[in-house]
Write a structure and sequence with these properties.
The complex is a heterodimer. Chain A is mainly alpha-helical. Chain A has one domain: Farnesyl Diphosphate Synthase. Chain A is built from 16 helices and 2 strands. The two termini of chain A are about 20 Å apart. Among the domains of chain B are: about 45 residues, no CATH class; about 120 residues, no CATH class. In chain B, a hairpin with a 5-residue loop joins strand 6 and strand 7. In chain B, helix 1 packs across helix 2. Classes of the chains: A mainly alpha, B alpha+beta.
Chain lengths: ~350, ~240
């Protein structure tokens, strides 16, 4: 299939499911005081747009089994609320200055208010999960909450790994450790949880969730690697700070490859550069890290792995969907495997 | 000509004919793709040997990571729950509908019981006045003398709505349902309904068995005093689906 066809279908579905999720999400954001200190902050990130990939994966997977949008909608809202909550916290932890083309929340309002807003969005994601009882029944609603609890633990562990590597200047990180961190930090919220609960809802609890765990992992890992690549080579549409990952000292596959291939002198200098905090890092050092990555073809290495993982995602999806009827949602999920690595 | 100048063929790779044609292809005899091989071999820790080893390592490594993750997850889950579920595979659409109906019933039944409990009341003014069974209104009568808890047990594979109107003489303990009938005489009656007093408390258990193949519809009938034959209430059951 052509890139245009893939992009068109995926964009159409993301827009459609994204819009219905945004509309439902607005019902869960209170319109009352204190607005300036809290509720305006809660509404900020969701209003800035975004791909809406996570809620769309949830809805599409539920519909893959024949469910109605309404049965998955509250879960999709909870996913988007939690995603935005973690974005607020991520931006604080990373010291990021831009999010979706605008200053980050803590830059606009200060860390304490932004932190509180993130905490509130996290807690508010519980309400739509409780409201699920009306749509899917008590039993499934409880199972979804159990999945959400596991997802939260995995995300926290993954985030702690990434933060810990930076804080303690870990230099022995390999591909295996990187993939494990991405599995926990990114994949569980971005892809695994949405499609697992979508499968739960659509199949009334009978689907094999491990199959969706594999598909979600490969899809999410390819997505994250592409995200890391865009941070280095993306254009102005990217929306985040260019080279932000280098400024923050994030252990991406490109940096891991540079570490692995560089000489002992280069490795020693790289370790020294990464030892400092973002504020202590100079533009010269960031540019030097870029040149090291280019020297050892870090972007090419990461891009190849992302493509391989996209292929593995396609394979896993073919296995788990072989006996499901053809539908627009089935095609959408299948094409997500290539969309995640072709997006810009 | 010296031996060193003679053309020499290399020794043949095989010494006999190939009988097993399935061995000609790398993933022969199955539908397994490279990723299948990665998956099983990653799970078994078996090293692979391919020409493009670096490319294999990427996907193979990813499979090892995820399979370990799944094993760890299962091990952790076993600490919290090791009881087997009595589930079975859903084999066709009808089976799936049955399972969904059962799940629907278990969630709907508590609501029905609650609704019926609040709807059932004993009104002495409506009790028919017959000779020999004069109603004695005692000054110190309490609500418990004119009301009685009712448990409803429904055995049905389809959704069922029950309407119960019970006017009970507190001294009557033998209530009988004479079978429920539909307006359409072609539909068989619904029998086997019982009203049994509980031994441990002042309550009744209404049992309504619905045969799996009983035609849908509304089935109604009276509840009578088993000793006197007097009407004590009405029962209506709507079978849907």
């Amino acid at each position: 299939m052509s890139d245009c066809t893939t992009s068109t279908l995926v964009s159409t579905v993301l827009r459609e499911y994204g819009e219905v999720t945004r509309t439902a999400l607005r019902n869960y954001l209170p319109d009352r005081e204190p607005r300036r200190y809290l509720y305006d902050l809660l509404a900020d990130y969701p209003q800035r747009g975004g791909k809406m990939m996570r809620p769309s994966l949830c809805i599409a997977t539920a519909r893959l089994f024949g469910a109605q949008i309404d049965q998955a909608l509250r879960t999709a809202v909870a996913i988007e609320l939690l995603h935005n909550a973690l974005l607020i916290h991520d931006d604080i932890e990373d010291g990021s200055e831009k999010r979706r083309g605008r200053p980050t929340l803590h830059v606009l309002h200060g860390v304490p208010l932004a932190l509180n807003a993130g905490d509130t969005l996290t807690l508010m994601s519980l309400r739509p999960l409780l409201d699920n009882r009306a749509a899917v029944g008590d039993r499934l609603a409880l199972r979804i909450i159990e999945e959400a609890e596991r997802m939260a633990c995995e995300c926290a562990e993954g985030q702690s790994m990434e933060l810990g590597w930076r804080h303690y200047n870990a230099t022995g990180i390999g591909d295996s450790e990187y993939l494990e961190m991405v599995l926990k930090k990114t994949c569980w919220l971005a892809t695994i949880f949405p499609i697992r609960v979508g499968a739960l809802i659509g199949s009334h609890g009978s689907a094999d969730l491990d199959a969706f765990l594999r598909f979600g992992f490969f899809l999410g890992a390819a997505f994250q690697i592409q995200d890391d690549l865009l941070n280095l080579v993306g254009d102005e549409r990217y929306g985040k700070e260019r080279d932000g990952d280098l400024w923050e000292g994030k252990r991406t596959l490109m940096l891991i490859q540079a570490f692995r291939e560089s000489t002992s002198d280069e490795r020693e200098r790289l370790a020294a550069v990464l030892r400092g905090s973002r504020a202590e890092r100079s533009l010269e050092e960031v540019l030097w890290m870029r040149s090291l990555i280019e020297k050892y073809e870090g972007t090419g290495y990461a891009r190849r792995l992302a493509q391989e993982l996209a292929g593995a995602a396609l394979h896993e999806f073919e296995l788990l969907s072989a006996e499901l009827p053809n539908s627009r949602d089935k095609t959408f999920l299948e094409r997500m495997a290539t969309w995640v690595i072709e997006r810009n | 000509m010296s031996d060193s100048k003679r053309l020499r063929r290399e020794d043949p790779a095989r010494s006999g004919p190939i009988r097993n044609f399935s061995g000609l292809y790398q993933w022969s005899g199955s539908d397994r793709s490279p990723a299948d091989s990665y998956q099983s071999q990653a799970a078994n820790g078996i090293p692979r040997h391919r020409q493009d080893a670096s490319r294999d390592e990427g996907v193979g490594l990813a499979y090892r990571v995820i399979e370990k993750h799944i094993r760890d997850g299962k091990r952790n889950a076993e600490q919290f729950n090791s009881q087997p579920y009595t589930t079975r595979a859903v084999t066709d659409g009808f089976q799936e509908i049955l399972e969904r109906t059962l799940r629907f019933q278990t969630e709907l039944l508590p609501l029905w019981i609650e609704a019926l409990s609040s709807a059932v009341r004993i009104d002495p003014a409506q009790r028919p006045h017959t000779p020999g069974t004069a109603w004695r209104q005692e000054g110190n009568s309490t609500a418990s003398r004119n009301s009685r808890a009712i448990s409803i047990e429904i055995a049905s594979v389809r959704p069922v709505q029950v309407s119960l109107d019970l006017r009970e003489n507190p001294e009557s303990s033998a209530l009988v349902c004479l079978g429920l009938r539909a307006v359409d005489e072609a539909k068989p009656p619904l029998n086997g309904i019982s009203l049994t007093p509980e031994t441990t408390r002042d309550a009744l258990t209404l049992r309504i068995p619905i045969p799996d193949a009983h035609p849908p519809g509304i089935y109604s009938g009276v509840i009578v005093d088993g000793n006197t034959g007097e009407t004590r209430g009405t029962l209506s059951v709507r079978i849907t689906g």
